Automatic annotation (TrEMBL):
Keyword Cell division included in the entry's annotation: no
Protein name, per record: Death-associated protein kinase 2-like
PROSITE patterns: PROTEIN_KINASE_ATP, PROTEIN_KINASE_DOM, PROTEIN_KINASE_ST
GO molecular function: ATP binding; protein serine/threonine kinase activity
Organism for this UniProt entry: Sinocyclocheilus grahami
Upper lineage: Eukaryota, Metazoa, Chordata, Craniata, Vertebrata
Gene: LOC107565569
């Protein structure tokens, strides 16, 4: 078992504002008392006991830490330190100030494909680096692609949240059911052996989006998508070819991150290809609509989860103390039976 720093994190860091929350805790700005340098602190609640269903298994955080420690790349969030107490682990990580890439783009009036490619290239460089180290992220999606500083002339992409990541060992068979419905590969839904290729079968606009999560998952398994003229009329053929090579059901046939980096859409071979790319642009009206819908869905999931938790608390209070014990209605018990698929996403089931 890995041993982390046992000092009280507050003795060494002043804890500041909340930057974001995940399913198992919060991320807050922290200031290192000795140097005044700002970092982010990811506070992760651990399971209270073997029977407790809320909180994370220590082992799963150890895995996230081990993976982050092994990755040092400009486009991947860096880990500085880890502290542990009885109830939680605190990861001190690089502070990423620029927010989500998609929010930054949605604020723009227009974006050429050339500008979009600059961001895409950085994402691919980060992904290609981790894949070379046999690490798959397994939760690449807009929420996990952030910008170092949105006011910088050329902000760096930072890939965050390695909570579902896995390092493959040669010859190992690894399966997992985790992921976010709009963005998971068909082999995950089908519970087949996985590889780093699962990180590649995605597109930011989720062309598989259905009316319900079930419909979305069915569309992915059937690889049911089309380039609707309404959305893709301004998109270059090279960009469509690039997307088509990613949205391939057979993982062994899917383009790798390294191959993506030399695809002519990313790395044009001649002046004509450069000119074509410069003439094409992103349909910002559709992008803004998509981003607003994505944000709405995220808040809806969060509110539903809070409502379920509050209902459970009220139920526990309404029953007397004996009944409460009889029914094992712990205040930290999760109602997984009724959770939407997007909330079942993390660290639930995986096997090697
Ligand atoms: P989830 O349950 O979604 O997997 P999590 O508990 O693993 O979440 P993260 O996704 O890593 O947590 O972080 C939650 C949110 O905190 C992010 O969406 C982001 O807004 C913010 N955040 C995470 N890391 C950083 C960072 N290094 N700097 C600034 N903000 C961050």
């Amino acid at each position: 078992m890995a041993v982390f720093k046992l000092d009280n994190v507050e003795d060494l860091y002043a804890i500041g504002n909340v930057l974001g929350s995940g399913h198992f805790g919060q991320v807050r700005e922290v200031r290192e008392r000795a140097t005044g340098v700002l970092w982010a602190g990811k506070f992760l609640k651990l399971k209270k006991g073997a029977g407790s269903r809320l909180g994370l298994e220590r082992k799963s955080v150890e895995k996230e830490v081990e993976i982050l420690q092994s990755l040092q790349h400009q486009n991947i969030m860096a880990l500085k330190d880890v502290f542990e107490s009885r109830a939680e682990l605190v990861l001190i990580i690089e502070l990423i100030k620029g927010g989500e890439l998609f929010d930054f783009i949605a604020e723009k009036e227009n974006l050429t494909e050339t500008e979009a490619i600059e961001f895409m290239k950085q994402i691919l460089e980060g992904v290609s680096y981790m894949h070379q180290k046999y690490v798959a992220h397994f939760d690449l999606k807009p929420e996990n692609i952030m910008l170092s500083d949105k006011h910088a002339p050329n902000p760096d992409i930072k890939i965050i949240d390695f909570g579902m990541a896995h390092r493959f060992i040669q010859g190992e068979e690894y399966k997992s059911l985790g992921g976010t419905p709009q963005y998971i590969a068909p082999e995950i839904i089908n519970y087949e052996p996985l590889s780093t290729a699962a990180d590649m079968c995605l597109s930011g606009l989720s062309p598989f989006q259905g009316e319900t999560d079930e419909e979305t998952l069915r569309n992915i398994v059937a690889m049911n998508y089309e380039f609707e003229p309404h959305y893709f009329s301004q998109t270059s053929n090279m960009a469509k070819d690039f997307i088509q090579k990613l949205l391939v059901k057979d993982q062994s046939e899917r383009i790798t991150a390294e191959e993506c980096l030399v695809h002519p859409w990313i790395k044009p071979l001649n002046r004509t290809q450069i000119a074509k790319r410069n003439r094409s642009s992103i349909n910002m009206k559709n992008f803004k609509k998509f981003n607003a819908r994505r944000k709405w869905k995220m808040s809806f999931n969060m509110v539903s989860a809070c409502n379920r938790f509050c209902r459970l608390q009220l139920l526990c209070k309404a029953r007397g103390p004996e009944q409460q014990e009889l029914r094992d209605c712990e205040s930290d018990q999760e109602d997984t039976g009724t959770k939407p698929a997007s909330l079942l996403r993390r660290r639930l089931s995986s096997s090697s």
